[in-house]
Amino acid sequence: MSTAAVLAATIAFRGATLIDGTGVPAVRDSLLVISDGRIVSVGQATPEALRALPPGTKVEAVSGKWIVPGFVDAHVHADSDEDLKTMLRWGLTSVRVMAEDSAAAVKLAYSSKTRGDIPEVFPAAPIFTAKGGWWDQGEPPDASLDRFADNPERARASVRRARVLGSAEIKLMLDDMRWCRDPLSPLPRMKPDVARALIEEARNEGLRVSVHAPGLSDAKEAIADGATALAHGVLDPIDDGTLAVMKSRPVFYIPTMDIFELLADPKGFVETVLSDPRAAAGVPAETAASYRSAAYAERYAKSYPNVESLKKKLPALRENIKRLHAAGVPVALGTDMWAFPGLGVSIEMDLYVRAGLTPLEVLRAATLTSARSLDLDKDRGTLAAGKRADFLILDADPIADVRNVRALSAVYKAGVRAVPR
Ligand SMILES: [Zn+2]
């Protein structure tokens, strides 16, 4: 059968408990109808709804299972094609990829639209930083523009070039990394006038701007300059004034709590993740063994020695997500998880629940709110008529335990079953 014929067929998924991503309670005994890569309808599997299905509809019985929207990770890096494939296998159907090279990222984004083996890619590119600063520690330059621009004019020119190359979003680093590197020497941080020029020019050109700024003063500078998202959680208590600005503009908050927890205790973090057999089953044995080795923890201790100070900051990180979420600041799920690509989503979800969000709220962060942070919510992020048919079928209840999103039975990207293939 041709791909077109497969897509044109109408499929109805009958009987699952469906969570639509908006935050409203789950629908039991649901009927999700898709056709041609789109959702036709979502509702209850009433006798009338079943009778109304078009002739020839293929009905799949999914009683005893759960359906959720495909996950949108608002902060990933993809070191390889294999990383992206792993992300899709864990239920990520769309990802914001932070990338060094704008042209390469745009090319990857284009091919990801039609590939069935990776999520759709939405780049934030390039990653601007100070020469010798964070993300100039061996990471490549952008081949077509200067991502280390060191004065406002060069900065603005680079942003305009990024837009011409097709970038819809840039990222910048505002961090000297003392919070994790002390007593090693601090890294050079981008000058404030360069940061302001990058952000202003991007906003003038209609681009989004994600800023890496885990310190409160850096985050406040990014917000004042016009950033559209904080790409990491903030490690100091966020004041009410900053919170109010984030809510009203809005500025999306992408906590990446898993990275801070990993840095604070690499060994404990790895053991906790791998203690769930469903997680361990998705990690190659040699990778798990290397993570469990003493050398792995030692490498972290050497590069990021400021562990005691970071541990003291974790309560503020946990309190910030809870306070911001309660106040109505949009919290988008992002993992930045290099150790466990894809699997990071369930790790991050669990950390949000531990910080005080409900599983339903966490699922919304990973779907609707992350999609909003990419201006994608009209097209995806929730299960509603007309939206792209990106969804997951789970064997266990994610409301009972959000880590049950690891019990993945199938991943659909644009109406096509991508996992298992
Ligand atoms: Zn990152």
The rounded distance between the terminal residues' Cα atoms is 15 Å
**Quick one: CATH superfamily of the largest domain?**
Metal-dependent hydrolases
Q: What's the architecture of the largest domain in CATH terms?
A: Alpha-Beta Barrel
Fraction of helical residues: 25-40%
Please give the CATH class of the largest domain.
Answer: Alpha Beta
Average per-residue pLDDT, rounded, comes to: 96
- As a percent range, the share of strand residues is 15-25%
The coarse silhouette is globular
Q: List each distinct ligand once.
A: zinc ion
Please give the domain count: 2
The major pleated sheet works out as: 5 strands, mixed
Determine the structural class based on helices, strands and strand pairing: alpha/beta
CATH fold group of the largest domain: TIM Barrel
How do the strands of the widest beta sheet line up side by side? Answer: 2-6-15-16-17
Tell me the number of helical segments per DSSP (H or I, 4 or more residues long): 17
**Backbone CA Rg:** 21 Å
